[in-house]
């Protein structure tokens, strides 16, 4: 096994200028990540200089067998924390051979929204709080929980320490450092309310880069849990009963919100979000009705409300924002399995472009 590890860690630059590029894309479910690698003649830092590639869409639920070719367009480059050196991870989106985005390509429409002059002028910032649950591989039960049983009730686990409170910290810290190495603007991690549940935060990130960075952060997490023999779940309510669900709270601000008088802009934006509550909920992740019950730090899925420092609201405004009269707000509705391309662009579209 030591020889295998040595071979995996070979420094390619000693003997060749060639590098390995791992192309990443989103599969047919809209939540599954796929990837494959190819050799390039030398280092690349501009995604526009990377070759397009293809894959068998009939094996990912994205194309019929008789016309199965789907084309990958490279969109963002990150350093590869697994192979290191000049090797890279490449976030791609998917198109037909004719150049049309396939139905599961949500990045295409998001990029159109973020390139709109009115949106670009507002320089939208996002900070996404990605919650997830670590599961024991063979039993699909949270890490650290007795098989077929339950731990003590919630209370000591949030940001807790100790072998009886924090389960999987080695995975969490490995992921944290790997994301920093990759160039992802990961801003922190913490243990969550339910044991075996954790959170990492990505941001602030501007526009489309928020979606790119969160998807690649998820990819890195999946790869690390693969190595560790643990399963990561983004289900919004992995355990029924008196246990917290998992969300992807999305913090948001525009240039106007960050400037003097921004609090009035924030309140107007929240009012617009309330008018489109149903449309947003329908796009904020599958199974979210199991999480947004009005309990466990959530608002009921059918009710829109906002408040200052209120974690039981749909939208939370921080005390500092209220005090300073400018800043940001937090949309607490998105589920942990949401598509960040959809959520970030929809918030921008509703608050900047939509005219009620």
UniProtKB/TrEMBL annotation:
Q: Show the GO cellular component annotation of the record.
A: cytoplasm
Domain GS catalytic residue range list? 106-356
Q: What is its EC number?
A: 6.3.1.2
Main enzyme class: ligase
What reaction(s) does this enzyme catalyze? L-glutamate + NH4(+) + ATP = L-glutamine + ADP + phosphate + H(+)
Alphabetically sorted, this entry's keywords are: ATP-binding, Cytoplasm, Ligase, Nucleotide-binding
List the subcellular locations: Cytoplasm
Q: A GO molecular-function term, please?
A: ATP binding
One family name in Pfam for this protein:
Gln-synt_C
What residue stretches are annotated with the GS beta-grasp domain?
A: 19-99
The protein's predominant localisation is cytoplasm
Biological processes annotated in GO: glutamine biosynthetic process
The Swiss-Prot or TrEMBL record describes its family as follows: Belongs to the glutamine synthetase family.
Assembly and partners are described as: Homooctamer.
Annotated protein name in UniProt: Glutamine synthetase
Organism encoding this protein: Vitis rotundifolia (Muscadine grape)
């Amino acid at each position: 096994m030591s020889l295998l590890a040595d071979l995996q860690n070979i420094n390619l630059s000693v003997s060749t200028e060639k590098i390995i590029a791992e192309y990443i894309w989103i599969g047919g479910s809209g939540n599954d990540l796929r990837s494959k690698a190819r050799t390039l003649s030398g280092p690349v830092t501009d995604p526009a200089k990377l070759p397009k590639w293809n894959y068998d869409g009939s094996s990912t639920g994205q194309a019929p067998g008789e016309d199965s070719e789907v084309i990958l367009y490279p969109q963002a480059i990150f350093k590869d924390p697994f192979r290191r050196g000049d090797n890279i991870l490449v976030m791609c989106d998917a198109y037909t051979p004719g150049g049309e985005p396939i139905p599961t390509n949500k990045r295409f429409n998001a990029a159109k929204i973020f390139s709109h002059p009115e949106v670009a002028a507002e320089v939208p910032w996002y900070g996404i709080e990605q919650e997830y649950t670590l599961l024991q591989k063979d039993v699909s039960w949270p890490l650290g929980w007795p098989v077929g049983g339950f731990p003590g009730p919630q209370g000591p686990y949030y940001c807790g320490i100790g072998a009886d409170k924090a389960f999987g910290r080695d995975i969490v810290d490995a992921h944290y450092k790997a994301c920093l190495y990759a160039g992802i603007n990961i801003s922190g991690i913490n243990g969550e309310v339910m044991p075996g549940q954790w959170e990492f935060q990505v941001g602030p990130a501007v526009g489309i880069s928020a979606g790119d960075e969160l998807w690649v952060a998820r990819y890195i997490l999946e790869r690390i849990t693969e190595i560790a023999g643990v399963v990561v779940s983004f289900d919004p309510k992995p355990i029924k009963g008196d246990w917290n669900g998992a969300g992807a709270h999305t913090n948001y601000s525009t240039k106007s919100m960050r400037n003097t008088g921004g609090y009035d802009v924030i309140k107007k934006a929240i009012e617009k979000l309330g008018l489109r509550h149903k449309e947003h909920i329908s796009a904020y992740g599958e199974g979210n009705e199991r999480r947004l019950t009005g309990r466990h730090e959530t608002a009921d899925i059918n009710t829109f409300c906002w408040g200052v420092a209120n974690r039981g609201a749909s939208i939370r405004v921080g005390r500092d924002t209220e005090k300073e009269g400018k800043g940001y707000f937090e949309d607490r509705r998105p589920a942990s399995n949401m598509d960040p391309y959809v959520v970030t662009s929809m918030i921008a579209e509703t608050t900047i472009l939509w005219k009620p």
